[in-house]
Amino acid sequence: MFPISVAGGNLIAFLLIFLWVISGSFKNKIIHIIKNKFVLASLLFFLLHLLSLSWADDVNLGLGSVKKMLEFGVLIPALTFLFEKKRVEIYLNYFLVSVFITVVISFLVFFGMPNPFINDSDVLNPVAFSSHVTQGPIVAIGYYVSMRFLLFLNSEQFKAKKTMVLFYVFLSLLSAANVFILEGRAGYVVFFIVNLILFIQRFNLTYKSLMLFALTAVIFLTLVDAYSPKFHNRTIETIESAKNLSQDRLSSLGRRYTMAENTLNVFKENPLVGVGSGNLPIHYEKSIKSSKIDSETLKVISKNTKNPHNMYLLTAAELGVLGLFFLLHLFYRNLTLGLRTVNKLKKDIAVTSCVIFFLMNFSESYFLGHFTTFLYAFLASLSLSKD
Q1: How far apart are alpha carbons 123 and 140 in whole angstroms?
Q2: For residue 124, how many other CB atoms are within 10 A of its CB?
Q3: pLDDT value at position 139?
Q4: End-to-end CA distance of the chain, in Å?
């Protein structure tokens, strides 16, 4: 049900957690959590959010933030225990079906169909169920999964799975095109990163594979820049914003710069354990009031922000150095365990999901979003479940 429905995703998560709880074997579950270092790191990251309520100014704000972290505290332990090795491809295909539905609806909106799911979705903003910030990266990841299947099929599998091959080809093309009719810059970046990863995973890390990727990327960039006004305009806008970052604080990058600056000030005042989960808005307002920003408009825009558009800055401000360590440790366990995974498909998914979400969280707090957090929990748990 993701990235289609928040309610549907929550229902599936609840049912999976319920199944995990009633399945018994609590001793085996505890052993599983302790032995699987990624699951343990995920659980500790969640527990730190919970513990931080003890020093938070507003517990209600903190509870709202803790609720967003339930995937790390409950869903990941449940999924890594429940996923079956033999059904990995089936689970991934379910995900691809949801991406296919998302992409089809997005294109229908792009060609003029009203969207009954998102009010502000239209020809200029053809998102299906979420926003361009979320849909772009998810569709790019869907592109990666479908291409990963295609690139590793041998001649016999091509003949035996003709229907699935056609589906993967069609979805790969649609997904690639869909990323570039949206205005989400994260989606563009993720698309090129997953293509680099695909080249390395298929042809190994060699000079030849890197040169082949570079050539392909240049050709594709030239075509996309010529035929995608959205991509061209966003690229020009980003370059101009970067050039005038310190002067133009009302631009997209300028606002992020201001938010980062004030969030860092909150962190500097509470470096060890932060201000408590969900409590950034309280301390951020104090920081924005004491800052030397002349623009009253920018003060209003940035005031009371719950999200500085950077997961690492958010974690540092709310949980301090300790929280940042736990977050980075989570990715470290994801990567190291993924590299040691015997199953090639699971290894590739583990490494790719780790790299993508690690990088994505520099541009947005993607672990605050339902769809993206659910997707990370799904991919990481699937790839790091017991063999």
Answers
A1: 20
A2: 11
A3: 97
A4: 25
